[in-house]
Design a protein that fits this description.
The structure is a single chain. The protein is α/β, with parallel strands linked by helices. The chain folds into two domains: 86 residues, Pyruvate kinase, C-terminal domain (Pyruvate Kinase, Chain: A, domain 1); 175 residues, no CATH class. Helices cover 35% and strands 16% of the residues. It is built from eight helices and eight strands, in the order E-H-E-E-H-E-H-E-H-E-H-H-E-H-H-E. Strands 3-2-1-4-6-5-7-8 form an eight-stranded mixed β-sheet, sandwiched between helices. Helix 1 links the parallel strand 1 and strand 2. Helix 6 packs parallel to helix 7. 46% of the residues are buried.
């Protein structure tokens, strides 16, 4: 089988879905441009001058006349990235919670685990994450692991790397934040593993010098929507008990060369179309 194309800054696009991100969008995009040659910003009907803040920067901007949700924004960004012919897409939010400096680590992990989805898992400094968000994330990981067929870490993180075989998957269902959950399920059902790369947790809290806007994610509302969707996926595939036991017996793959959160095992996971 042909060797997978090595990912690097010239064949990876960074997709930034943005809704009313005037506060931080320019520094987010400038940080992204320092890590990749192609940056795609999808403005999802912002009314606070978000696009004006990135005027003059060498990025592709897609504008929605009205708010269509994060799922629609990501689909638009993926379609443009596919048109530009890139081999992978990195997603990051426009509010500054994701550090662009982590992108090379995601790319390196993707080269060690070809064909896999790489998730920037908020494991470092996790104590700064509000308790209710931690509980919600753990619950989401439990449900999504069941649907994927193996345990996952930080399934709610928006900082991810999708290889071309995944971000070009057709007809992935789900809107809003449900779409991001479904991307992991669809990737798993097409043979891709999910690999976690530990990153820092960054939230507005005491001692955090960075200002963030209020999250668009509403824990109860969005977690209920995600859970309802995922449970439906599990039930439709049947053999519920056996799939649950199988999933719980498959530990998550954590790519952490430091060894703090897990052993670094090159090619511990491979996705569809990757070399044996």
């Amino acid at each position: 089988m042909a060797e997978a194309t090595r990912l690097q800054r010239d064949n990876v696009a960074i997709v930034v879905p943005a809704l009313n991100e005037a506060l931080r969008i320019r520094e987010v995009v400038e940080g992204a441009l320092a890590q990749a040659a192609r940056v795609i910003v999808v403005d999802d009907g912002s009314d606070d001058g978000t696009v004006d803040r990135i005027a003059g920067l060498p990025v592709t901007v897609i504008r929605h006349a009205r708010r269509m949700g994060k799922g629609a924004a990501l689909r638009a960004g993926f379609a443009e990235a596919a048109r530009q012919g890139v081999q992978a897409v990195v997603t990051m939010d426009g509010d500054g919670q994701h550090a662009a400096a982590d992108i090379p680590r995601l790319i390196d992990a993707a080269n060690r685990h070809p064909g896999c989805v790489i998730v920037g898992a908020r494991l470092r400094k996790r104590v700064s994450q509000p308790l209710h968000r931690r509980i919600g994330n753990d619950f989401g990981d439990w449900g999504l692991g069941w649907a994927c067929g193996f345990r996952v870490v930080d399934s709610q993180s928006g900082q991810r790397l999708y290889p071309r075989a995944v971000f070009t998957l057709p007809d992935v269902p789900g809107e809003g934040f449900v779409f991001e959950a479904q991307m992991l399920v669809s990737a798993a059902r097409n043979g891709a593993r999910i690999v976690a790369v530990p990153i820092e947790t960054r939230y507005a809290c005491a001692g955090e010098p960075t200002e963030f806007r209020k999250s668009h994610f509403r824990l109860v509302r969005d977690l209920v929507a995600i859970t309802t969707h995922v449970v439906g996926q599990v039930l439709r595939h049947g053999d519920v008990a056996r799939r649950y036991l199988k999933a719980r017996g498959e530990p998550p793959v954590i790519d952490d060369p430091s060894g703090e959160f897990g052993p670094h095992i090159p090619h511990a996971a491979q996705g569809p179309g990757s070399p044996p």
